[in-house]
Amino acid sequence: MKKLLLLSLTALLGACSSMTSTPQASLDGEVFYLQRIALPPTATLEVSLQDVSLADAPAVTLAKQSGPVKGQVPLPFHLTYDPAQIKPGHTYAISARIEENGQLLFINTERNSVDLTAKTQQPIRVRVDQIR
């Protein structure tokens, strides 16, 4: 009897946890630059997925990854976002920046649009340019 009760409770808890979890989608890619220089060991990378639909309003960030740079370019990233936030007809883009001690070293200067409605996502390559 106790085993049956324990089994029933386990099944119920499993069903509840699967109902409350939010569906997630993700984008993978890498950030790179063309200059033949090494990044300082204290550099940080920030990559964001943004809704850039409105030209007269700030972009809305849907996902962000930031932290210390591990290694040299290309620098991999993985963004996880909630697909329920994706709105039909909106435009989405990836932005990236590399900083050291709060000072900007590299930033993307071109729009890196992504189609979040595609069935499969190809890895995204984001080029950043050095700030002089």
Automatic annotation (TrEMBL):
Which superkingdom?
Bacteria
Instruction: Show the Pfam families listed in the entry.
Output: YscW (PF09619)
Where is the secretion signal located? 1-20
InterPro entries linked: Lipoprotein_YbaY-like, Pilotin
UniProt keyword list = Signal
Q: What is the protein named?
A: Lipoprotein
Source organism per entry reads Pseudomonas fluorescens
